[in-house]
What we know:
By secondary structure, the chain is mainly α. Helix content is 77%, strand content 0%.
Amino acid sequence: MASFPQAIEKSNDLFNSTEHGQVTDEQAHDQAVQLLSNVEEARGFFVALLTGQSAIADAPPRWLIEAMREQINVVAELLAKNLVMSTATKLIHERKGDAAAAAGSQTVATRTAGIIKKLEAPGLQSALTQLSSAVDDRLGEKDSPDSSWDAFLRKWGYDLEQLQAMKVALADCRS
């Protein structure tokens, strides 16, 4: 198993090799499945994918979507977290007047939403629904039991504006 930094490097190598025609779609798929097989490597994979310069993030190829579907048990939670965290972080950067950082966070949110919409995976929809319920609970709009999603939201101390932005982003991605 690769470390987080190694997974970022391996993922960037994969994206570069794919874009330059150095690997087949089947080889790319197999490498992606391996990188998405555990949380640590998958976190590195998504950092490389969502924050990097690769065009793959903006137009995910079939091999990538299929690899994510095969590893949906790992991928679902990470995509849900990436969506809401980048949405919330954008607001923090805007408040600080850091337009470049806010644009970077918006790029991550947009790419994540695009991938979520392409995946159309039940496991992912379940994670989004659960997270949406936890956001509603934090907004005082719904009384849901404590969950890992509620703990996640409490841990980061998101404010009302951030939670409302998350609610919109989640609603836009739920089918």
